[in-house]
Design brief:
Layout lengths: L1 E5 L6 H11 L4 E3 L2 H7 L10 H16 L7 E4 L2 H10 L4 H4 L2 H8 L4 E5 L3 H6 L6 H17 L10 E4 L6 H13 L14
Parallel strand pairs: 1-3, 1-4, 2-3, 4-5
Organism: Salinispora tropica (strain ATCC BAA-916 / DSM 44818 / JCM 13857 / NBRC 105044 / CNB-440)
Protein name: NadR/Ttd14 AAA domain-containing protein
Length: 194
């Protein structure tokens, strides 16, 4: 399986990616594009600028399409994350992204997992920077994933994780098992797990 984990900052994405890699034999994690671009010499503004988010979105799309990525891969962030940050900053998604490269990128995913802000994330996870941007991005991401204004991920199954943090990995593993069964209609784009 190739799984992408998306969500605003401070929602437990990286922890979930690590837990899934530990429980899915042979799966490897692809680091989030921010770190990949830093290693490639990109200098980010603080907080990141719209141009930074565009670069991150393009790098995330390249990661999904990259041939060296094995079929058993879990991606820490997808292009959807950075489109949501742009929308949260007031951008029009149709002016920020060409649907064709995004659609090609999302065809390389078997499952898109969305981590969202919940009362439990606010209580148990460390406080984050830019809480206003975080909340706006969470809302923008949810609207984008379900409305799909670019028609970029219509066939990608979506699993929204809004339930307890300690049950997230199990929900993803259950969905992976369902998707792996021939003829299974385990998930479709839309809210699937609470």
């Amino acid at each position: 399986m190739r799984i992408g984990v998306s969500g605003t900052h401070g929602t437990g994405k990286t922890t979930l990616v690590e837990a899934l890699c530990a429980r899915l034999p042979g799966h490897v994690a692809v680091d989030e594009p921010y770190h990949l671009l830093e290693e490639e010499g990109h200098e980010f503004q603080y907080p990141p600028s719209s141009e930074d988010y565009r670069s991150l979105m393009a790098r995330a799309a390249r990661s999904l399409c990259s041939p060296p990525s094995p079929s058993a891969t879990i991606f820490d962030r997808t292009p959807l994350d950075y489109l949501a940050y742009l929308v949260a900053a007031g951008a029009d998604p149709s002016e920020e992204a060409d649907h064709t490269p995004l659609r090609v990128a999302f065809t390389h995913l078997d499952l898109l997992v969305i981590t969202v802000i919940t009362p439990e994330t606010e209580r148990l996870l460390p406080a984050t920077e830019w809480p206003g941007l975080r909340a706006r991005t969470n809302d923008a991401l949810l609207e984008l994933v379900y409305d799909d204004p670019l028609d970029a991920w219509p066939d990608t199954p979506v699993l929204e994780l809004s339930g307890p943090l300690d049950g997230r990995a199990d929900l993803v593993l259950d969905t992976v098992a369902q998707l792996g069964r021939p003829g299974s209609e385990a998930t479709s784009t839309g809210p699937t797990a609470g």
